[in-house]
Amino acid sequence: MSMPIARRALLAVAAMPAVARAATPLRIGILHTLSPAPLYIAMDRGYFRDAGLAARFRFFQAAQPIAAAAVAGDIEVGVTALTGGFFALAGRGALHVIGGGLQERRGIEGTALLASPKAFAAGLTSPAKLPGHSVGITQFGSSFQYMVGRIAEIEHFDPKSIVLRPLQGIGNMIAALGTNQVDATFAIASQAKPLVAAGRAHLLAWIGDLFPYQITAVFTTNRMVTRRAAELRGFADAYKRGVTDYRAAFFTPGAPAATTDAAIASIEKFVFTGDPNAPAKIRAGIGYYNADGALDVPDVRRQIDWFRAQGLVKVPLDPAKIIDTQFLPTIDL
User: Fold this and answer.
1) pTM here?
2) Which of 3, 125, 185, 220 can pair with 173 through a Cys bridge, CB separation 3.0 to 4.6 Å?
3) pLDDT, position 47
4) Is 180 left (phi over 0), alpha (psi -120 to 50) or beta?
């Protein structure tokens, strides 16, 4: 006798992988650059699937829209630079920082400050000479504006002596530099090094050599923390595995070539896809991640203080309510 259709359907559903039955996907908002490389590794190697998550990426062109997307419910987790817009939303209880991403450190070629050939020839040859020049950023309140502010502190000049030009996207920043619409801008190593090698830009400094900086971080929403904490722990486990593989491939002395090549192959499925120079670009653009995606809490506190001091965040901010350390580890540099 044949099995009733309803019974067969129930058995079929029960046999499906847990991730396939997940009612709500875990949408991860990131910039479509090399910066979130450990996440690409985690996705390609099935670490999110292993954690029972139906994870998928949603790509953005600038950092602040990622925070807005999280509040709107369009993503569950974001990994990008902390901005004035982010802290304003976090101050209202909407967002929580739960882990670290890219870390700028001395000796690490992460984010570059670049000058256009025209501006360089006219005397813009170091960060100290930025006053009187224009700098391309994504938006006011962005991490790039923060970098300008920190450079001004270090070099002892008034940040108001620089003309900031918001260009809405990283691609636009690089394009504006190439056409002399701005005198300087910022770019991650994988973008900056080819421009410098081709003579289309001049390197003024690596940000990590100027000041340490938790440039990107992992964040989520209050509703995720209160209603879907188990999924966030699964995300954290998968993320840590991706970071561990990333560090083993690129920041372990004497790492086997096969280990590095395999990591590059995973990353290449998401960025530089089909580019014959992809392996070289990835090697040239690798940024630093702390072990297990640990968050530099003191630096995040410093960023909060800076954005508030500049009037870019007007709501009260209690770092203890914004930084949630239950999912990923922290460090104190």
Assistant:
1) 0.85
2) 185
3) 98
4) left
